[in-house]
Amino acid sequence: MTQGCNVAFIGLGVMGYPMAGHLARAGHRVTVYNRTAAKAQRFEKEFSARAAATPREAAEGAEFVFSCVGNDEDLRSVTLGASGAFAGMRAGAVFADHTTASAKVARELFQAAGESGLGFLDAPISGGQAGAEKGQLTVMCGGEPEVFAKAQPIIAAYAKACRLMGPPGSGQLTKMVNQIAIAGLVQSLSEALNFAERAGLDGLAVVDLIKNGAAQSWQMENRAATMLKSEFDHGFAVEWMRKDLAICLEEARRNGAQLPVAALVDQFYARVQQMGGSRWDTSSLIAALKR
Predict the structure, then answer these.
(1) pLDDT one-digit tens code per residue, 97-114
(2) Which residues are catalytic?
(3) 3, 151, 192, 277: least surrounded by Cβ within 10 Å?
(4) How many CB atoms lie within 10 A of CB 150?
(5) 195 CB-near residues (< 8 Å, 6+ apart)
(6) Domains of the chain
(7) Residue 232: half-sphere exposure toward Cβ, Cα within 13 Å
(8) Rg of the chain over all Cα atoms, to the nearest angstrom
(9) C-alpha–C-alpha distance, residues 70 and 273, integer Å
(10) Does this model's pTM top 0.90?
């Protein structure tokens, strides 16, 4: 692994904070920026890093700048303008964005970066908070091959898999595929577990048996037990999943893909939110069935 680079990380949420930590542990010199300064200051102390007052300041002198923020507008706010990261980056540096955002903004920022002589990758991630903490994320990239080749050894600090999926926007499109697949899986698992309980079966025993067959999935292995106990205080929040599904549905309207199940599951998540579950884990779909 390439070591000893000057890197910056923008956005120290539940994903970004541990990801930036892995970069520091890998021997890179890390500068961080976070909208809530206290979190950046905590990171500064924990990892002997440097906290910056603006994205531009964080990016100055960095060979690689990474971001993991909330949505398209958050991403624009930390990259563009006088205080944005692009304004502080030197020609030839690489910006890799790990936000789950639209393919449209990925292409827009690729263009803006190129006009400043910068490399840009849209590089959304999958694996959840646990994957970030363990350095076992899956990273889906869109961009130019030579830019990807430069960034991949640095991204390896927190990734178990990292692949270039195509031109700019392809990383975000791949993440949409991921979220569409997960939505249907979680709803199906919720219905199956609820059915098992109403049929008088031992849900855990059922899962322990059928996970050895064709019904097996990551969701079954990692969420079935907590779903049966109605424990939803971990993982990826419902409000975040709804944001992602909105991106998927908007893209489908553009490309003509039919997403009837994803659209329906989005409505089910809206029902969970009405129950007060906006910050519950996405496996809380079962809660609406248990009412």
Answers:
(1) 999 999 999 999 999 999
(2) 175
(3) 3
(4) 19
(5) none
(6) 6-167 (3.40.50.720), 173-290 (1.10.1040.10)
(7) 21
(8) 20
(9) 19
(10) yes
